[in-house]
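Chain A, query sequence.
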Amino acid sequence: MATPGASVRLKRLRQRFGINAPRLAIRTYVAWYWRALASITILSVSLALAAWIYDAGRRIAGFQSNESIREIQSLRNHLMELDAELTKLRSLAGSGESSLQIERATQKQLSLQAKALEAENAILKEDLAFFEGLMPTSEAGDEVGARIDHLRIEPSGVLGEYRYRMLVVNNAGRQAREIKGALQILVKVQQGGKDVMIILPSATEPNPQRFRFEIKHFHRLEGVFSVPSEVVVKEVEARFLQDSIVRARQSVNL
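Chain A, predicted structure.
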């Protein structure tokens, strides 16, 4: 019969070497530096594979680095060309605008010169007609008298104010003697539906001497007269008076 101590030892042997014994793993011993080298190799391969996969994905998606750089450079070059073209067009537009302004200024100046020449031509025609009228005719002889020529009545730009201009000519010819007279202006206006005659100078004229003058051959008269702003001027008649007697007259309708 076995003793208790022997039973315990037998039980322990069964637990270690029997069916219920713990498994035994046999491993090959590898030095630590070989294990480190293998880890580094695997890590390098993984990184290279990851980089290749990343680069392949960029190529597939169109994000190739070199191609992107070339595309960016191409876009920059195209942008520079567009900037140069824009600068050139702006320069041409500026020169064109300057030429247009010069042309407009020249055209305006020519228009003003044309108007000035037209006005000068009209004055020359008027002076020519005037001097032709000064030449004595065989019918006039040495008859003493005067006449009014080239009566002009124009608005002065001020409401109710008109400018007059005329020539008073002595018909006596070369043997003309100086004669004295006065100017009288009759203005026919319409006021309140009625025709009214305004005589200038009026009795209240502050300076009646401006309507008196002396002539030997001819005398140019210019001045302004005023009428009420609410009236409509229909006709103006200029008269040359000697001793309150009408010696010459001329009228114009407005």
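The first strand starts at residue 146 and ends at 155. The beta strands are 146-155, 161-170, 179-191, 194-200, 212-215, 218-226, 232-242, 245-253.
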